[in-house]
Amino acid sequence: MSRREIEKLAERLHVDVEGLELVEAVRLLQRIEGHFDCFARAESGFCDQTGCCFYTECMENSTNSEENTADA
């Protein structure tokens, strides 16, 4: 999801994300929507928050984070 898409979602939810890093903005929106603020933190590759609008991208980023950590 692009920064602009996140900003549009924030506007619809009446949330100010200006000045926040992208991941911080996503996690704030997750909380507002009633989900855990866990974007890109699924270390085990599992997440039960399938109703979250960031689910797919979150899982991709969690996998990438895990791979990046393994390569270090």
Overview of this structure, please?
It contains 3 helices and no strands. About 15% of the residues are buried. The model is unreliable at about 65-70 (pLDDT under 50). The chain is about 55% helix and about 0% strand. With about 70 residues, the chain is mainly α.
Name the shape in a single word.
Answer: globular
Number of helices: 3
Overall mean pLDDT score?
A: 86
By secondary-structure content and strand pairing, the structural class works out as: mainly alpha
Report low-confidence residues grouped into runs of 5 or more.
66-72
In terms of DSSP E residues, the strand content is under 5%
Number of strands: 0
Largest sheet: none
CA-based gyration radius = 13 Å
| Helix percentage range | 40-55%
- How do the SSEs run, as a string of H and E? HHH
Query: What's the end-to-end separation, in Å?
Result: 26 Å
Summarize the topology:
Layout: H1 3-12, H2 22-32, H3 55-71
Helix pairs in contact: 1-2
What's this model, at a glance?
This protein is mainly α. The protein is built from three helices and no strands.
List keywords for this structure.
mainly alpha; 0% strand; 3 helices
